[in-house]
């Protein structure tokens, strides 16, 4: 028997391990699709209930897909190695086909344990590359440039088994699937307005976004939270869990460009090509971050630039950090972004950068603590992207990335000038119009009648002087990025510096 092991590769379409398992059923035996709900992973602090429920919804739909082509998905609860042991004793496993993942340490250790188990039990393990990432130290994998990877992706056939009766190639399930009530519950709470899991949801987004009109308008809509909801593809969560492949996204972009070429004049087509490249740049960055984490997975636990170790504030109980986490910093745009994230599990990239910058620069909090909190807030949390990008924004990754300090007031004026986004997510200010909604002297202690009736407290005063703290942070980050170790001085305070010295109010 073969096992098609599902992890963050929750799809049948464009699935190399599924196709390989189906192709080799005569030699290695029928195929058992398997997903293991592992308590040790569910209990990790970066896994939250919204992630778990998104996976449940995806597995429910995937189970129906597998049934429609003659198979059955087996879901079990337990750690990977003991679970495989139980199955192997009932129905010997000849081969496991799965995807290679770039993920957090605990899951990588799980993968290594599975590899050792396969070696001990003479089970062939076949792991396929995903997202064009080359496994660190693997000589058999060729590293491609992004243009090379893109060309390969758009020129290959993306296989879809839908509508084909493959019943003879599937194995009978050796055990009954575990009822959902037996699966440990992840921490935290679900987001009331998050995206739903499942391939059908991803396909709706593909249909809505990948058109000439959407690609042409994308560069102009992604920065404002008011336009990003419709202007961005919003497929990040579906990419994170492998519900769709990045190759499918590249092919969709290529199809849009080909469609435009069929009827556009030269000038219009040149603009379309440029805007398609603008979207593809984001996919390239995504792949680069994944490769960065693959090459150095310790970024989950340490700063890339060691001179930042122990410099920033690490107290997670700090009242200022708590105010940021709860969306009560006194800066309306920052608070609207955090509250939006808490309701929906999603925020556009500009908003993510703004709240990360505020926490790591204006509040001078450690980037690893900031990343740990945001991991649970982002529905599309993907460790291989998340940990590197937070370090880039906070200045701890490389001097080549520069210093990213996003002024909270400038971001509000640039991307929510009329205050539409702020009024939606900060009800305390729902009766304030522009420009007053951007005047901190007016927002302090303000409470709309709507918010008062709903039990809200008056809106807080700003918890920091954003200009003073930004100036200090820029100086300190610049100093540290040059490879210098911070010492006590008038210009470069230590991490124990008082709030007053840092410009905190």
Give the topology.
Blueprint (H helix, E strand, L loop, with lengths): L1 E5 L9 H8 L1 H4 L2 E7 L1 H4 L6 H20 L5 E4 L2 H11 L4 E5 L5 H16 L3 E5 L17 H10 L43 H11 L2 H10 L3 H7 L4 H5 L5 H16 L4 H30 L23 H8 L5 H13 L4 H14 L4 H11 L5 H12 L13 H8 L4 H6 L14 H4 L5 H5 L12 H16 L24
Parallel strand pairs: 1-2, 1-4, 2-3, 4-5
The percentage helix is 40-55%
Total number of beta strands: 5
Q: What structural category characterises the helix and strand content?
A: mainly alpha
Query: What is the CA-based Rg, rounded?
Result: 24 Å
pLDDT averaged over residues? 93
**How are strands sequenced across the largest beta sheet?**
3-2-1-4-5
Order of helices and strands: EHHEHHEHEHEHHHHHHHHHHHHHHHHH
**What gap, in angstroms, lies between the N and C termini?**
65 Å
- What percentage of amino acids are in beta strands? 5-15%
- Uncertain spans: 487-505
Our count of helices gives 23
Largest sheet: 5 strands, parallel
Shape by Cα distribution = globular
Short précis:
Helices cover 49% and strands 5% of the residues. It is globular and about 75 Å long. The C terminus is likely disordered.
Descriptive report:
- This protein has helices spanning 16-23, 25-28, 39-42, 49-68, 80-90, 105-120, 146-155, 199-209, 212-221, 225-231, 236-240, 246-261, 266-295, 319-326, 332-344, 349-362, 367-377, 383-394, 408-415, 420-425, 440-443, 449-453, 466-481, and strands at 2-6, 31-37, 74-77, 95-99, 124-128.
- By secondary structure, the chain is mainly alpha-helical.
- It has a 5-stranded parallel β-sheet with strand order 3-2-1-4-5, sandwiched between helices.
- The longest helix is centred in the middle third of the chain and has 30 residues, at 266-295.
- The model is unreliable at 487-505 (pLDDT under 50).
